[in-house]
Amino acid sequence: MPPAALLLVGGRSSRMGRSKAGLDWHGEPLATRLAGVLLEAVDGGPVVVVSAPGQALPPLPAGCETVADPVPGEGPLRGLATGLGALRGRADAAFAASVDMPLLNAGAVHAVLAGLGDADAAVPVAGGRPQYLAAAYRVGVLAVAEELLAAGERRLGALAEHVNAHSLDAAAAGIAAALVNVNTPEEYAQALAAARP
């Protein structure tokens, strides 16, 4: 089965002050751009966009599927579990991305998926920090994610702690720049200026 991709767009965006999914990225919404990157990267594999319940989304490229979290407010672990559930039986592994990585490219997605090997997850580490929402996961880790959620866990890092996860040095792999997150208006403005066409 071809790899799949998940795009999580349902975060509260409290530091940004507005929905990151709709941020303009050189003429198109950020969610639209990232969904296109993921479609290119998995080349025919499913791409699932996971939103908050009732969240309005910008137009997405043809070929994307959408699914809403069944339980609001349970954070990215719930979003990942929702996306993996939508892929059950259709993919063995998926690259999971957050919508706040405007510099993500297909090459970085390929590098992370290639780093999965025989592990349950491949998590890039950039600037000393694990990037759990720029990582590859086996769809089979869904069972562990659901157990953690049932126990009240909300951290994505907890999933990596409970499965066989490989760490990837993002700098050594040449992908650190592609994994930059924009969480504040200032970070967004800097990334927008740096990536001017």
Number of domains: 1
Query: Percent of residues in helical segments?
Result: 25-40%
What letter string, H or E per element, gives the SSE order? EEEHEEHEHEEEHHEH
Mean pLDDT: 91
For the sheet with most strands, the description reads: 8 strands, mixed
CATH homologous superfamily, by name?
Answer: Spore Coat Polysaccharide Biosynthesis Protein SpsA, Chain A
Residue windows where pLDDT falls under 50 for at least 5 positions: none
CATH architecture: Alpha-Beta Complex
Number of helices: 6
Beginning-to-end CA distance, first to last residue: 35 Å
**CATH class (first level) name:** Alpha Beta
| Global outline | globular
Report on this structure.
- It contains six helices and ten strands.
- Helix 1 crosses helix 3 (106-114) and helix 2 (75-87) packs antiparallel against helix 4 (142-150).
- The chain has helices at residues 30-42, 75-87, 106-114, 142-150, 156-162, 185-194; strands at residues 4-8, 24-25, 28-29, 47-51, 64-68, 93-98, 121-126, 129-130, 134-138, 165-169.
- The longest helix is centred in the N-terminal third of the chain and has 13 residues, at 30-42.
- The chain is of the alpha/beta class and 197 residues long.
- The protein has one domain: Spore Coat Polysaccharide Biosynthesis Protein SpsA, Chain A.
- Strands 1, 4, 5, 6, 7, 8, 9 and 10 form an eight-stranded mixed beta sheet that branches. A two-stranded antiparallel ribbon has the order 2-3.
